[in-house]
Amino acid sequence: MSIDNLRSALPEYAKDQKLNLGSLTRTTELNEQQLWGTLLASAAATGNDTVFAEISEEAKEHLSDEAFEAALGAATVMAMNNVAYRAKHFLGEDYTNVKFGLRMNIIAKPGVEKADFELWSLAVSTINGCENCVVAHDKTVREEGLTKEQVWEAVKVAAVIQAVAQTVQIEAAR
């Protein structure tokens, strides 16, 4: 199971995604842990079983057990936070000071470097469409020393993995 399997399964109309997958896995902007954690967290965020299976199997070759679990943790905690923060934003000023009341301890102790976990959280938040979370995680990773090019690379990974997941879903339904 691998990204190569995903690339070869994509139809002609998704040729751009084949090319994007190839170039993103050869990035020089992100280190190996950042790249594979972003790929894994993004694959989990898509909710597509095939994409998750293919990427997670290969990610095990590139990530420590701690980083693998942290990437999955970023996907799950952001699944919750992205919904809650969007709702708080939609509901307006009356909810600004409402106690959040949700556990999210993994953010404080993810088991990997803070910048990497926050980068994965940013990628997942991008897929989930939570503006507040994307902006907050961008601020944190930039304070932790990542560049705008590294942030954008993670956004590109998230975008391509989401497009691949949609293509796989279309093909399964055809």
UniProtKB/TrEMBL annotation:
Gene3D superfamilies: AhpD-like (1.20.1290.10). InterPro entries: AhpD (IPR004674), AhpD-like (IPR029032), AhpD_core (IPR004675), CMD-like (IPR003779). GO terms for molecular function: disulfide oxidoreductase activity; hydroperoxide reductase activity; peroxiredoxin activity. Disulfide bonds join 130-133. Transmembrane segments: none annotated. The keyword Amino-acid biosynthesis does not apply. This is Alkyl hydroperoxide reductase AhpD. It comes from Corynebacterium humireducens NBRC 106098 = DSM 45392.
